[in-house]
Amino acid sequence: MKHKIMIIGAGFGGMWAAVSATRLFNIHGYQDVEVTVLAPQAELRIRPRFYEPDAHTLVAPIDALFDALDIKFIQGTAYSINVEEKSVDYRDASGMEQRVGYDKLVLASGSSLATPSIQGVAEHAFDVDQLEQAVRLEQHLTSLASLAESKGRNTVVVAGGGFTGIETATEMPARLRKILGEQANIEVIIVDRSTEIGASMGAEISRSIAEACEELGVKWRLKSSVVAVDENGVVLDDGHRIEAKTVVWTTGVRADSLTSQIPGKQDALGRLHVDSNLAVIGQRDIYATGDVAYAATDDIGNHALMTCQHAIVMGRHAGNNVAAEILGIEPVAYRQPKYVTCLDLGQWGAVYTEGWNREVKLTRQEGKSLKTQINTVWIYPPAANREAAWAAADPLIPIA
Fold first, then answer.
1. 50 and 107 assigned to the same domain
2. Residue 399 — pLDDT band, cuts 50, 70, 90?
3. Mean pLDDT across the chain, nearest whole number?
4. Residue 108 counted as domain residue
5. Which of 199, 227, 249 is the last residue of a domain?
6. How far is C-alpha 313 from the chain's CA centre?
7. For a FRET experiment, which of 114, 248, 259, 286 has its CA 20 to 30 Å from that of 34?
8. pTM of the model
9. Domain presence at residue 372
């Protein structure tokens, strides 16, 4: 009887886990196994780019890749995991409820925006968390051209001054001018609880963020939070109202709720604690990777963030290690000591940093060139070619 490995999710972590697992089985000539990916679509959605225009193009089909590597794909959405019975319940493409069993499970179901229970957010705010929402924002921005000139039409409020909020806000002036005309009086405002611009990202990188925002005309409303949203604007916690037809919510994500169905310790974001091999602590046959895993990146206290930078490498390790367990060989412990950031800052350029203290290495167009390379080449799936794909999935690939 074949061993059944079930991978839930086809994002960065799930896709790379599937490729990496088949790689190790191929190396050892082991065929008594079935690797299956369960996900709503056989495509990698390039989520880190959803702040950009033309969001509908930011997908990469992976069905041909799966076919080339003999990875089985089930189109559906998992909603229940029974750890005792080793089964997953899902709704297929037609909405019918189905069940599939597994011997080993890799949870790679990702994360989603943690929408707060603030008046009007669900009804009137936009976000760039998922493809459908990014497309919805794109359609809304395009529709602004049909409205009469007004301050509210030309104003965008971005709630949250973290990574996504900054990239969304600094891209917005160019996006709006393309729609409303170069002479339009555009106003983009970031509302953030911090006391300083980009405070959560460190002092050195925050100087580049402040410089870029100054040149682009992006304003910050610090020590503030949005307490209500309606179709014409927002109200802040001090009672101040900002007229804006566009409000974009970017205030953090949480791990997929499937993590709550797996017995194990979770962090504050709902991620499952995993060991160095990415096995869920206390669960012999379940691994977690990407945004659902709370994993140490080194031996000095740093942990993986909910980014594709970490999910790609974690996926390679999770797939390799679940296969290694079946093969009875040594796993490859997950470690990713080098941490970098490359923050897009619109037409100003980008800022690239290294280390957890975010030491700035490149700015403006030098940084932008690197960001473009990352966004358009490095994070995309490998070609549907066995040798190339398996070579790219090796967990021992040096991390530059």
1. yes
2. low
3. 97
4. yes
5. 249
6. 14
7. 259
8. 0.96
9. no
